[in-house]
Write a structure and sequence with these properties.
alpha/beta; 5-stranded mixed β-sheet; 18% strand; Nucleotidyltransferase, domain 5; binds adenosine-5'-diphosphate; 14 helices; 369 residues
């Protein structure tokens, strides 16, 4: 059974094609500059069409009928989705409502789904949400101490992101440790361009560092992470900035890029630190300090941890960084806590979740034939 996984972003569409039940990767690719000026691919519907045609041209499949299901990444599922869902009109309508919470991402995700539905109307489509894994977080942990009416009116609360990655890495850690998730306390550090840390108890997210948007929490490539909001008001006033301009600064010009004045790319920062650049060193120290603060908080919340796992482009490729943090973890926990580096694979997780949802229908269809 072949499952196509689609990650339809604002200007790119990535895909991976897997063969199940062995979850073997058989093809992957990417279409960039979707909808941009001078691009041949004018919109997501056209992008998805080109992408699916390319899969046949590449020889990965001989006919579109070989695709049994499609799994789509959707960034925001709000409070409506705590698990993956087979797409029907009511699911589409709810994702449209959640677009209010993720105006840059959900419309692009939806365009990918609708493009696929047009080309392959009979194929089951499944949506997997970045926020779903965190729907187990308790109300005392997800509420902000704002007037309650803003939660009631606008659903202002922590949602958390990178859920598919945190879930995947939790499962991998459980396999590696040879213990069921129900017996494990884990802290997962997803460190890429975006960074988030999640406390996982018995396989369930109990707290996570990202919030209403991915801006909260750790320092990231270009995002500030936690900040006193009063400092934001102060800068806006002094520099006469609009909300849009300030949002751009916090999301795109802060973090490693903002502090170091050099780059958002961790490799460039490490090189600059080796060349004794002071601001790059400061940025790196701030990054590590903040990771340690979250790990400390989550060790306390969980009452210890069986493992702290590092993943994402930064977490997977920088043993120096991980070892530095490991020394401090072991100082507190002794050898009770393992420190693991585990590669993430969000597309594979989406493929697996899609397979789990559709396999029953697929088998009974085959039996009928
Ligand atoms: P995204 O959040 O966009 O998925 P990634 O998980 O790919 O990002 O992580 C991107 C970050 O990982 C960049 O800062 C990059 O410098 C860092 N990175 C990727 N590969 C390496 C490597 N081999 N060594 C050090 N850092 C790396």
């Amino acid at each position: 059974m072949k499952i196509l996984v689609i990650n339809s972003g604002s200007s790119s569409i990535k895909y991976k094609l897997y063969e199940y039940p062995k979850n073997r990767l058989i093809d992957k690719g990417l279409i960039e500059n979707v909808g941009e000026k001078d691009s041949l691919v004018k919109n997501h519907a056209q992008g998805v069409k080109v992408l699916i045609e390319n899969i046949v041209i590449s020889g990965a499949i001989s006919d579109l009928s070989e695709i049994s299901a499609i799994g789509h990444r959707v960034v925001h599922g709000g409070e409506d989705f705590a698990a993956p869902k087979i797409v029907d009109q009511s699911v589409i309508d709810k994702i449209k409502l959640c677009a209010n919470l993720a105006p840059l991402h959900n419309p692009a995700n939806l365009a990918g789904i609708e493009g696929c539905r047009k080309i392959l109307p009979k194929v089951s489509q499944v949506v997997v949400f970045d926020t779903a894994f965190h729907q187990t977080i308790s109300k005392k942990a997800y509420m902000y101490a704002l007037p309650y009416k803003y939660y009631q009116k606008y659903k202002i609360r922590k949602y958390g992101f990178h859920g598919t990655s945190h879930q995947f890495v939790s499962k991998q850690a459980s396999n590696y440790l040879g213990k069921p998730l129900s017996k494990l306390k884990l802290i997962i550090c997803h460190l890429g361009n975006g960074c988030s840390i999640t406390a996982v108890n018995k396989g369930k997210s109990v707290d996570t560092s990202m919030g209403f948007t991915p801006l909260e929490g750790l320092m990231m490539g270009t995002r500030s992470g936690n900040i006193d909001i009063a400092a934001v008001f102060h800068v806006m006033e002094k520099e006469n900035l609009s909300i849009q301009e300030m949002a751009e600064i916090l999301n795109k010009k802060s973090g490693f890029l903002g502090v170091s004045k050099i780059s958002n790319d961790f490799r460039v920062i490490i090189k600059a630190v080796k060349e004794e650049d002071k601001l790059a060193k400061l940025a790196l120290d701030m990054f590590i300090y903040r990771i340690k603060k979250y790990i400390g908080a989550y060790l306390f919340i969980l009452g210890g941890a069986d493992a702290v796992c590092f993943t994402g482009g930064v977490g997977e490729n920088n043993s120096g960084l991980v070892n530095k943090i490991k020394i401090d973890i072991l100082k507190i926990t002794g050898d009770k806590t393992k420190v693991l580096v585990i590669p993430t694979d969000e597309e594979l997780m989406i493929g697996n979740l899609t397979y789990n949802l559709v396999k029953r229908g697929y088998k009974s269809n085959k039996e009928k034939k």
